[in-house]
Amino acid sequence: MKLGPEEKRIMDKMQPGILTVDGFLGNDNRNLHDIIQEDAEKVEALGYTAEDIGKRMQYLTERSKEAYEEPILIDQKYLVQQDIWRGKVVCPFPHKGLYVKADIHLKNIENGIEISWTPLNIHFIEEHGFFEGKGSKHRLDPETLIKAIY
Amino acid sequence: MEILYNIITATVISGSLSIILVVAEYFFANYGDCKITVNDKKELVVKGGGNLLNALAENKIFIPSACGGRGSCGFCKVKALDGAGPVLPTEKPYLSAKELNNNVRLSCQIKVRQDIKIEIPEELFNIKKFKAKVIEVIDYTYDIKGITFQLLDPDTVDFKAGQYMQLETPKYEKSKQVISRAYSISSIPDNKNALQFIIRRVPDGLCTTWVHDYLKMGDIVNLVGPFGDFYIRDTDTDIIYVAGGSGKAPIKSMVEHAAKYQNPRKMTYFFGARAMKDLYLTEEFQEYEKTMPDFTYVPVLSSPDPEDDWKGKTGFIPPYFKDYIRDPLKTEAYLCGSPGMIAAVEKELTKLGVPNDKIYFDSF
Ligand SMILES: Cc1cc2nc3c(=O)[nH]c(=O)nc-3n(C[C@H](O)[C@H](O)[C@H](O)COP(=O)(O)OP(=O)(O)OC[C@H]3O[C@@H](n4cnc5c(N)ncnc54)[C@H](O)[C@@H]3O)c2cc1C
Ligand code: FES
Ligand SMILES: [Zn+2]
Fold first, then answer.
1. Sheet hosting strand A98-108, strand order edge to edge
2. Closest partner residue to A4 among B7, B90, B204, by Cβ?
3. Which atom of ligand 2 lies nearest, measured to the CA of B94?
4. What angle do CA A137, A142, A144 make, to 5 degrees?
5. Whose atoms come closest to the Cα of A119: which ligand?
6. The CATH number of the domain where B213 resides is what?
7. B362 CB under 6 A from ligand 1?
8. What's the pLDDT tens digit per position in B51-91?
């Protein structure tokens, strides 16, 4: 499908050096709706919804705050640690949205999978079904993410 | 998901509309001079065609902005009484029904095409844009630098200890445009012609990568401000300061200022860090214990390295408050750090009886 002006505006904001150093699309040359669509299909095939995944990430993020910025073992299975910075980053989609600058690191001690995300990633997934473009440093491959957090 | 469908359905209609608009703008856009009336007392004459946020900035009126006018932060609100045209779809997500009713608009999205009448908070008239030069760079820790800027034009500033400025960093290899980030001033208000900031590296951060890897002595930047209502209230209560990481900046300004004027209030400063390698300015603050009337510095390490041989306090800060608070009702708290730290500290202080309205921090 053709790239509309609204989608183009969002993709312009997602380029490197606009809102963040590397942007959100990596080296993925597809249009935003194709990126979102492919991941939506993957998530559905695995029996989840993006909203569920976002909520799960939010739960683990919130629980890890109990240890401030030290590591904490959650539900006997997830070793989580957060680095929280000052300031907030804006969402490139058209709505009011500011998200804490932080890096959340999780290790699933049952299967050894380690992943990291930011509060903006949670919002992207929950509200926009956006896992970021391929090659983006902060992309969360749905399959790996699901294996890590469930 | 809804956004995705909106994107797709909006594609065809807005695609053709925007082509017509761009073509029309190209052929007919000459708006000549336009008058902007601000708060019924200031009249600015600007060349039409640009956005209101920039037109005001060119006339030295600085409306807060966290996204540089890209319509993503919703900070640049003004009340537009006349001449601003209809509310654009790019503005609507940021405006509540009440704000829409009150003609509140995003100034970065308003094009100046005719005379405009607006209203802004009076205090915004005090905010200035300063051209400044890097004159000192100190490595406080492996990820924290102290940067001092000499003000060139204007060459002096008035601010209260605890306030912050917006630092505009130039375009560089990793940033396609000028970006602007808030930094608390760490020097004291008496130094009117130079400002120090304490800046912590955020991995892959757009601004902090520039500060840590590209900035050099003599570089010229713009600073806009001062902003914020995080400053010491003029009372005689005890004071608890709590900071972590780069949160030391505004507290350094507050304590140094209090030291200079021998402020007699009882002050306790808790500084939270992970290990010894994250501590900085320790001797300076310990020195204030000797030179100030009633000041105590309490560094707390959450996970000291074995080689640190740390004999001081460990763990989290909140459990130590009760040992230092004499009368919670006569205590003010000034907090600076990450939102998680602020939330935890606020919770504990409230539990101990410190009134909520006496707990101050930069909310953002
Ligand atoms: C009032 C105030 C005062 C402040 N004072 C100070 C101070 O004194 N000292 C100080 O050091 N800081 C201070 N800050 C913070 C400062 O304004 C900046 O926010 C901070 O330095 C980081 O800016 P940056 O441009 O380097 O990071 P940015 O590039 O803006 O943001 C980086 C963050 O964005 C997120 N992110 C980046 N890319 C992606 C991606 N692809 N997907 C998902 N998430 C992503 C991550 O969370 C990452 O941590 C203050 C902030 C405020 C509001
Ligand atoms: S400046 Fe950020 S929305 Fe206008
Ligand atoms: Zn969003």
1. A72-74, A78-90, A98-108, A114-117
2. B7
3. 3
4. 80
5. 1
6. 2.40.30.10
7. yes
8. 999 999 999 999 988 777 878 788 899 999 999 999 998 88
Residues B142 and B110 in one domain: no
Q: Residue B116 falls within a domain, yes or no?
A: yes
- Pick A86's closest partner by Cβ from B3, B11, B247: B247
Residue A117, C-beta contacts closer than 8 angstroms, at least 6 positions apart: A57, A61, A103, A104, A106, A138, A140
Q: Mark whether B300 and B332 lie in a shared domain.
A: yes
Total domains present in chain A: 1
pLDDT (tens digit per residue) in B90-142: 888 888 899 999 999 999 999 999 999 999 998 898 899 999 999 999 999 99
The reply to whether residue A4 touches residue B15, judged by beta carbons under 8 angstroms, is yes
Question: Is the minimum distance from the CB of B57 to ligand 2 under 6 angstroms?
Answer: no
- Number of domains within chain B: 3
Domain that holds residue B198: 127-227
DSSP B48-69: TTSBHHHHHHHTT-----SSSS
Count A/B contacts: CB-CB distance under 8 Å: 130
- Do both B292 and B304 map to the same domain? yes
Residue B339 lies in a domain: yes
**Does residue B88 have its Cβ closer than 6 Å to ligand 2?**
no
* Centroid of ligand 2 to alpha carbon of A23 (angstroms): 19
